[in-house]
Amino acid sequence: MGIKDQFEDKARDLGDKAKGGMSGGQDEESERASQAQEQPKKQSKERSQQDLDETQRAAQEQQDKFNQDYDA
After folding, report:
1. If we measure between CA atoms, which residue out of 35, 54, 36, 57 comes closest to residue 46?
2. Tens-place pLDDT, residues 3-24
3. What is the distance between the alpha carbons of residues 58 and 24, in angstroms, rounded to a whole number?
4. Rounded to two decimals, what is the model's pTM?
């Protein structure tokens, strides 16, 4: 296969990809939009979990301190 044939094949592949990309672009846009909506929800859930963990940790520290004071 010559260089000319390689370039023609590459050009044909890129042309096909571009044609497919036109219809695929809408799918990509809707996917990005749904990801953008899910991202804040995910971050909010993570923050809630972190807050819960911190609350539980603080409560455990207070309980440990109380137990130390009570034992002494």
Report:
1. 54
2. 888 888 989 888 888 877 655 5
3. 50
4. 0.41
